[in-house]
Amino acid sequence: MLNETLPASSVPAETDQDYASCPEPNANKYVKGFKAAAYILVILLSLFGNAMVVRVVHKNRRMRTITNYLIINMSLADLLTTVFNMLPTTYWIFHGLDVWAVGGWLGETLCKLLSFAQTLSISVSVFTLCAIAFDRFFAIFRPLKRVITFRVAKGIIIASWLSSIIVSGPQLYVSTTTGEKGLAQCVEKWSPLFDEATAPRDYTIALFVLFYALPLTVIASLYTVIMLKLWRRRAPGQELSSNQEHKEKTNRKVLKMLVTVVIVFALSWFPLYVRMFVMFAESDRYVCGLPYDMDFLTLYLGHANSAVNPYIYVIFNENYRRGFRTVLSRRKRGSSRLQSTTRRTKSTRLQEKDAHLLRVDSRENKAASRGRKKESAEILLPITTTTENL
C-alpha cells in the first residue's frame, strides 16, 4: 500500500520475498475504523473545498486574477491526489488489499498510474507555489509593470503539468506488480536500464531536492524579501494615500495566506521524506518497513494537505469567504425554492380539485333547475289552453 505514496518505494525491492512473513498491519477493527474515518473526512473536505475554490473563482469575475488562477491549478492537483491516492488508500484500509492486488494487466496499470499520479500532483503543487511566489514578488517590486500576465500565467500552468509529467515519468517504467493474483504487490524494478541498488535512492534524493528543498528555499527567500518590503518602517513624516494604504494592507493579507499555505505544505510532506530516507539508510533493519502506525501517519499528513488548503483561503481571504457563502446560500435557496414549489404544487392540485368539484356541482344544479322548469311548464300548459278556450 505504501508503495503508492510519494516518489520512491518505501520498501526496497530486494525485500519483496519477505513480505509474506511481515505482520498484518491493519488487524485491530477499532484502529481500522478510526483510520478509515480519518481518511473519509479528508476526502470529503478535499472534494468539497477544492471544487468550491474552482467554482467561486469561475463565478466571480472580480476573483479572476492571476494568483487565483494559479490557486485553481493547485486545487486541481489536490483533487488528483484525492481521487487517485486517497480513495485507493481508503480501499486498502477497508479491505486489507491494494487496488492493484487483482493482478494482471489491470493491476499493473493501477500500480503504475497511482504511483505516477502521486508524484505528478506534488510536483504540480510545488511548481505552482513557486509561480505564485514570483508573481507576488513582481507585484510588490514592479507594481507599474505586470511581469506575469494572464498569457504568461497560462504558459506557466501548462509548463507545470508538462514538466511534472516528465519528472514523474520514471514511475511509469519502474512501478510493477509482483506476486499472485489477489495478493499482488506494487514494487519498483529499476533494472535493466538502471542500477537496482542505487537508482531508487538517487531518484528519491533528486525528487527531494527538486520538489522540496530547492523550491521551498526559493519561496522562503522571495517571501522574506517581500515581508521586509511591506513591513519596513516608513520614514518619519512619510504618509501614504488612502489608496496606497489599502493596497499595502491587501498585499499583507494575501502574503500571510500564501506563507501559511507554504508552511503547511512543508510541514505536511516533511515526515514522509524523512521516513523514506530512514528506510534507505536502515533497509536491513526495517525489512517490513517502519512501524505501520508511523507509516500511516506520515502518508496521512501528506494527503491531508490537499484538504487543508481551501480552508486556509477561506480563513485569510474575505473574497473566498464571501464566495463560499454565496454558493452555499444559493444552494440553500434552491432547496427552499424546490420545497416551496412542491408545496405550491400540492396546494394547487388541491385547489384545482376543489374548483373542479364546484364546477361539477354547479352544472348538476343548473341541470336540475332546468328539469324543474320544464316539468312546471308541462303542468301549466293544459290550464292555460283551457282558459283561452273559455
TrEMBL record:
<keyword id="KW-1133">Transmembrane helix</keyword>
<feature type="transmembrane region" description="Helical">
    <location>
        <begin position="36"/>
        <end position="57"/>
    </location>
</feature>
<feature type="transmembrane region" description="Helical">
    <location>
        <begin position="114"/>
        <end position="134"/>
    </location>
</feature>
<keyword id="KW-0807">Transducer</keyword>
<dbReference type="Pfam" id="PF00001">
    <property type="entry name" value="7tm_1"/>
</dbReference>
<feature type="transmembrane region" description="Helical">
    <location>
        <begin position="203"/>
        <end position="226"/>
    </location>
</feature>
<dbReference type="InterPro" id="IPR000276">
    <property type="entry name" value="GPCR_Rhodpsn"/>
</dbReference>
<dbReference type="GO" id="GO:0004930">
    <property type="term" value="F:G protein-coupled receptor activity"/>
</dbReference>
<keyword id="KW-0812">Transmembrane</keyword>
<feature type="transmembrane region" description="Helical">
    <location>
        <begin position="296"/>
        <end position="316"/>
    </location>
</feature>
<keyword id="KW-0297">G-protein coupled receptor</keyword>
<comment type="similarity">
    <text>Belongs to the G-protein coupled receptor 1 family.</text>
</comment>
<feature type="domain" description="G-protein coupled receptors family 1 profile">
    <location>
        <begin position="49"/>
        <end position="313"/>
    </location>
</feature>
<keyword id="KW-0472">Membrane</keyword>
<dbReference type="GO" id="GO:0005886">
    <property type="term" value="C:plasma membrane"/>
</dbReference>
<keyword id="KW-0675">Receptor</keyword>
<dbReference type="InterPro" id="IPR017452">
    <property type="entry name" value="GPCR_Rhodpsn_7TM"/>
</dbReference>
<feature type="transmembrane region" description="Helical">
    <location>
        <begin position="155"/>
        <end position="173"/>
    </location>
</feature>
<feature type="transmembrane region" description="Helical">
    <location>
        <begin position="69"/>
        <end position="94"/>
    </location>
</feature>
<protein>
    <recommendedName>
        <fullName>G-protein coupled receptors family 1 profile domain-containing protein</fullName>
    </recommendedName>
</protein>
<feature type="transmembrane region" description="Helical">
    <location>
        <begin position="254"/>
        <end position="276"/>
    </location>
</feature>
